[in-house]
Design brief:
Helix 6 crosses helix 8. About 80% of the residues lie in helices and about 0% in strands. With about 300 residues, the chain is mostly helical. The protein contains 14 helices and no strands.
Length: about 300
């Protein structure tokens, strides 16, 4: 009896420690993912979809190793594999649509429409709970989207010339929403590295097929940006995010995605001289305030 109680207490303490780190992991994953656009731009000797192909391909050996250690070499349940594979299809199509869309519209437009996943996940969370956000949650949503609008509104431009790229970026955001929802669902059965490995493996042939169909150059001359892309976006970024998904509601996940345009704007300023004005900085501060506020209700209601 004592042994069981000790074991239960130890398990509870481990779970509490994991929950304390979960929000930091979710933020860290999104920060790592926000560097992706900068690295895609630096990998200019391959096409945009080809860079996504290499992101998956170069990350896959490490992912397979992590998944093998996680499962002890046991095969995961077939239904869960199918859900993770479906998530991979959504993710591959998301990357292909967004990377191609970037070439046909402004970066600000692509960022704005590509991040519609934030809004869609918030709406999905409202649909699941059948409750409208109130109190701190409502204020956090208002601040987050107002901040994002300020961040991207300065450089956003509505024009018929950008219509195809805008629509592709919007499609990418919708596809990414499906990916996150499916991965959150399958994480109830699969461990994080296993789920991410299956999804990534499905992406590889699909992205290669799209890159070849578009006539993109596939073989790089400089591997450095692609290796960094695989490590930061797929291993660190997606790894942290997929690990933390079961611990949060879609509303929290959606708002946290808005870290990506804020950090991408900062990276553009530091790396490419894309200046940030007072309005941009104020928008980033609003997003930061929203991320602080969104944590308050979870502490009051129940542990994550």
């Amino acid at each position: 009896m004592t042994a069981k109680m000790d074991s239960g207490d130890g398990s509870g303490q481990a779970k509490a420690r994991a929950n304390r780190w979960a929000f930091a992991a979710l933020l860290g994953g999104n920060i790592a993912l926000s560097l992706g656009a900068m690295l895609v731009r630096l990998a200019d000797d391959v096409g945009p979809t080809a860079s996504a192909f290499w992101r998956m391909t170069l990350a896959l050996p490490l992912l397979l190793l992590f998944a093998w250690r996680e499962t002890g070499g046991r095969l995961p349940p077939r239904p869960a594999v199918m859900v993770a594979a479906a998530a991979g299809i959504f993710f591959a199509l998301d990357l292909a649509a967004w990377h191609v869309g970037i070439l046909q519209t402004k970066i600000a437009n692509a960022t704005l429409f590509g991040n519609c996943a934030s809004l869609l996940l918030v709406l999905w969370g409202i649909f699941l709970t059948r409750e409208l956000p109130r109190g701190w949650q409502a204020l956090a949503i208002l601040l987050a989207f107002a901040g994002s609008a300020l961040l991207m509104g300065q450089s956003y431009e509505l024009s018929p010339a950008y219509l195809a790229g805008d629509l592709l970026s919007l499609l990418a955001g919708m596809l990414y929403t499906g990916y996150v929802i499916l991965m959150k669902q399958v994480r109830g059965t699969l461990e994080p590295w296993t789920a991410l490995t299956i999804a990534s493996a499905v992406c590889v042939p699909l992205l290669l097929a799209v890159a070849l169909a578009l006539g993109e150059p596939v073989m790089p001359g400089d591997w450095t940006p692609l290796i960094l892309l695989a490590l930061t976006s797929q291993i660190v970024g997606q790894g942290l995010m997929i690990w933390s998904l079961p611990r949060f509601t879609p509303l929290v996940i959606g708002l946290t995605l808005l870290v990506q345009p804020a950090v991408a704007a900062l990276a553009g300023w530091l790396m490419f001289g894309e200046r940030l004005g007072p309005i941009d900085l104020f928008g980033g501060m609003l997003v930061g305030a929203a991320l602080v506020l969104i944590r308050l209700p979870s502490r009051r209601m129940a542990p994550i």
